[in-house]
Specification:
19 helices; globular; mainly alpha; about 475 residues; three-stranded antiparallel beta sheet; Sterol_reductase_CS
């Protein structure tokens, strides 16, 4: 859902560095954004997602609330007549004003941090890039400016959370899970509200009309978005705010609330819960440390802002990316030391591959190939492409380092980390493994989508590149 996703953590289409005239690469319908036209398969997929994605989220959260996180028991109860859809619905907590106040305070606080607290960490943290940064060139030829302060917002938020837990006691550290299903209704309200607002805004007062795409199909326009970078005023960017704040900042707080609930219920926190908290916190911190780099990724450079990102960032990400911690509240798992150690190693190795692969790409781009990868000067293939104005440009695609092992080795590392989260929950139930299944589908689809764009862009040169690096994710397999 929220391509952030991945998390959020969506990467660009090629590993190379462009050499000339990028400001001329404008308005090419093949090279940027979502589709101009919609086929019947795409339309049916959009309608199905709009109809069923909210119920998928509700089903998983309800299964934990009523069935100890079993996803088969509610289906069997329905099949055997022991439950009805109405009885399951009536047992689930409903919208509450207490949850509405909590969520409104949360979103408001994140807006204040995003808009009102300029980043100062880049002045004191070596290697961290924050403050005002340029985004990528939009199809209309604009370069938007962003206030990169996500790491600062994350630190301030968590410092206040910990101060409250240990000193002030304004609210219980279990406040999130205690209102979890009522909060689901609140996030849905915001997700649909912001998606609908962005949809209407694109017709009535778009930020930049030249960066809009209309297909003529209202469902596709609503889901995939019309505006490229919708904004309110100069600085409030919908994509950057809703992808990182309030969703990803909340991710680690949600996990902390799960851990606090485990402590409250059982008197201890399991090592599996600690593993999930640590590994996912590394993931989140990596995102915010590299937030400036995120401005050059697919979410910002190619995707439009519609229900897919708006609702996905508000609902899908915080509720389904945290399923492992929720599962462990209802089914505490204490792993053996060898088992826990192996899962930790898998997660850390996955993170190392993910981060190193992206670092190699970034270094190669910044130096235009004048660097060393694994102690050697990187090899590459030089590609040419034609921009919309007819000009010919050159681009280098790296074929060494992790980029010589497979064309998307960063995705491979991402999947290794995702699998580690799931394995920490043991093997008694399927629900915690939804995340690795979803991420596999998402990243394989993204591989295909990325490479379709690159094939259209580079033509025969892309064929030469794929000959040198024949595998997408796993050497000798795929």
């Amino acid at each position: 859902m929220a391509d952030n996703k991945v998390r959020k953590r969506q990467k660009g289409d090629a590993n190379g560095t462009h050499q000339a005239g990028m400001k001329n690469q404008l308005k090419d319908p093949v090279q940027w954004g979502r589709a101009w036209e919609v086929d019947w398969f795409s339309l049916m997929s959009v309608v199905l997602l709009l109809c069923f994605a909210p119920f998928i989220v509700f089903f998983f959260i309800m299964a934990c609330d009523q069935y100890q996180c079993s996803i088969t028991h509610p289906l069997l109860d329905l099949y055997n007549g022991d439950a009805t859809l109405l009885s399951i619905w009536n047992k689930a907590p409903s919208f509450s004003w207490a949850a509405a106040k909590i969520y409104a305070a949360w979103v408001t606080f994140q807006v204040v941090l995003y808009m009102g607290v300029p980043d100062f960490l880049h002045k004191i943290l070596p290697g961290y890039v924050g403050g005002v940064q340029d985004g990528a060139l939009t199809p209309a030829g604009l370069i938007n400016k962003y206030e990169v302060n996500g790491l600062q917002c994350w630190i301030i938020t968590h410092a206040l959370w910990l101060a409250n837990s240990h000193y002030f006691h304004w609210f219980s550290p279990t406040i999130i899970i205690d209102h979890w299903i009522p909060l689901l209704w609140c996030t849905n309200i915001l997700g649909y509200a912001v998606s609908t607002f962005a949809f209407i805004k694109a017709y009535l007062f778009p930020t930049n009309p030249e960066d809009c795409k209309f297909t003529g199909n209202i469902f596709y326009n609503y889901m995939m978005g019309i505006e490229f970078n919708p904004r309110i005023g100069k600085w409030f960017d919908f994509k950057l705010f809703f992808n990182g704040r309030p969703g990803i900042v909340a991710w680690t707080l949600i996990n902390l609330s799960y851990a606090a609930k485990q402590q409250e219920l059982y008197g201890y926190v399991t090592n599996s819960m600690i593993l999930v908290n640590v590994l996912q916190a590394i993931y989140v911190l990596d995102f915010f440390w590299n937030e400036a780099w995120y401005l050059k990724t697919i979410d910002i450079c190619h995707d439009h802002f519609g229900w897919y990102l708006g609702w996905g960032d508000c609902v899908w990400l915080p509720f389904l990316y945290t399923l492992q911690g929720l599962y462990l509240v209802y089914n505490p798992v204490q792993l053996s030391t060898p088992h826990a150690t192996s899962i930790l190693i898998l997660g850390l190795v996955g993170y190392y591959i993910f981060r190193s692969t992206n670092h190699q790409k970034d270094l190669f781009r910044r130096t235009e190939g004048n660097c060393k990868i694994w102690g050697k000067k990187p090899t590459f293939i030089e590609c040419s492409y034609r921009s919309a104005d007819g000009a010919i440009h050159k681009s280098k695609l790296m074929t060494s380092g992790f980029w010589g092992v497979s064309r998307h080795m960063n995705y491979t590392g991402d999947l290794m980390g995702s699998l580690a989260y799931c394995l920490a929950c043991g093997g008694q139930h399927l629900l915690p493994y939804f995340y690795i299944v979803y991420m596999t589908i998402l990243l394989v689809h993204r591989c295909i989508r990325d490479e379709h764009r690159c094939s259209s862009k580079y033509g025969k040169d892309w064929n030469g590149y794929t000959t040198l690096v024949p595998y997408r994710l796993l050497p000798n397999i795929f």
